[in-house]
Write a structure and sequence with these properties.
8 strands; elongated; two-stranded antiparallel sheet; six-stranded mixed sheet; 2 helices; 4% helix; single chain
């Protein structure tokens, strides 16, 4: 079995090579911590309540980051290049086996803890971690595109950020384009 390094603490964020390079981009961030890439795959628009400013979506919430503390030499383990760790929620340290990012949409009616399913995080031998969870998001919207309703296209944006953790510990970047649609919702 693959074990974590001595002194590994799942509550302490990993240090990795931050991708911020310029002084302007660095801003108040430190070189410690890790950058987390985020993406959402939209499967279905379940409900739109324009009068209440709500939209419920069926999604896969995906995050990717590097935790060098979880890396191993695959040749020492029979060529094993990936494994899985329990990853429920950042606030459930008794269940979760590794450090998890504190990133969520900020204008949701209920937090991700209540709306996304727990799942395993896939860890590659180089320390790359990929965590994807299915669930529903109920976004509180300030809909735009209502001037010529029903002939306008409605739009609803949402902000993503750390709830308790600042950019000094985790940076947030897009994984690919940051979103994708299933063929049924495109």
């Amino acid at each position: 079995a693959i074990t974590t390094a001595p002194g590994f603490d799942k509550l302490v964020p990993p240090n990795s090579d931050r991708s911020r390079t310029s002084t302007e981009e660095l801003g108040t961030y430190s070189n410690t911590g890790t950058d987390v890439k985020v993406s959402i795959r939209f499967f279905k628009v379940e409900e739109v309540k324009v009068s209440e400013g709500l939209m419920r979506l069926k999604v896969w919430w995906r995050m990717k980051w590097r935790d060098d503390r979880l890396a191993w030499n695959a040749s020492h383990y029979g060529g094993l290049t990936e494994t899985y760790y329990l990853a429920d929620e950042v606030t459930k340290s008794e269940v979760t086996e590794i450090w998890l990012p504190d990133i969520q949409p900020l204008n949701v009616k209920s937090g991700l803890y209540h709306t996304l399913e727990p799942s395993m995080a896939k860890v590659n031998s180089d320390g790359d971690v990929y965590w994807s969870r299915p669930g529903s998001l109920e976004i509180m919207c300030k809909f735009s595109g209502l001037a010529n309703f029903p002939y306008d296209a409605l739009s609803c944006g949402f902000d993503v950020g750390g709830w308790m953790t600042s950019g000094g510990t985790q940076g947030i970047k897009l994984l690919g384009t940051g979103f994708e649609f299933s063929s049924q919702e495109a």
